Amino acid sequence: MKEKTDVELPPCSVINEMDDMVVYTITDRISSMSIDLFKGSYDDSLLSQLMPEGESRSAINVFFIKTTGNYGGGKHNILIDAGLGEDAGGMMLQQLHKLGVNTEEIDAVCLTHLHGDHIGGLLKEGKPVFPNADIYLSVDEFNAWSNDGPMASRNGQWKQVLSVYSNRIKLCNDGDTIVDGWVVAHLAPGHTPGHTMYESGLCLFIGDLVHAQDIQYAYPEFCARYDNKPAQAVETRKKVLSTMEGRYLCGAHCYDQKMLTQ
Q1: Whether 51 contacts 65, CB under 8 Å
Q2: Which residues, 6 or more positions from 80, have their beta carbon under 8 angstroms from its beta carbon?
Q3: Nearest CA to 56 among 74, 32, 36, 79?
Q4: Tens digit of pLDDT for each residue in 123-149?
Q5: Which residue in 42, 79, 90, 223 could disulfide with 28, CB within 3.0 to 4.6 Å?
């Protein structure tokens, strides 16, 4: 994934607005996905046709859910993932500031998985960025990144996060309703063992289910090298894309969050 630092970030955009909640896309970084990431996964000849310039437009996104509490459930400020972090050049905090949101006001962060571009924004100079937030993730993902789990060799950054937020970690299982009823967790493994999607209102936050929307929405068989278990990732992607009509699919690396209609 190539990061592009010489372009102005788009303003935070509203995906879905209802009487009881507003959902925003917060672009943490503009980027692109190289064709090399997908070669050998399905049909290289077709891939070259779909990506004639050798890359696909992409992004690193965080999502912000602001609930009103008008119909019960209470007021909440929820993030889906936390981006790269300012220490790595992420722009999430500046984008939140544009929305008039202070870090102390975030009361929940739902992590799709534990790669650095999703958890880096939880820390700044080794300190918690969101001191009042509960951190949600799946039991399967937590176990996978433990010292005896399959992702243990890459868990250094997660261990830093865990040491800072240890008393605020909340584990969930497939189908659990969390954050005062506003969010439902759905296990979607393949990218990582416990990769998780979150549903809220009409939005389904799909994490890294899709890396390059220009090719993978139409051809879910293409798989990025980032996926821990490619065959499982393809199976999960096909299932989600075939059953989520009428939902906004909100991808961590999608430049456009769109309603799925088939």
Answers
A1: no
A2: 62, 63, 64, 65, 109, 110, 112, 198, 205, 250
A3: 32
A4: 999 999 999 999 999 999 999 999 999
A5: 90
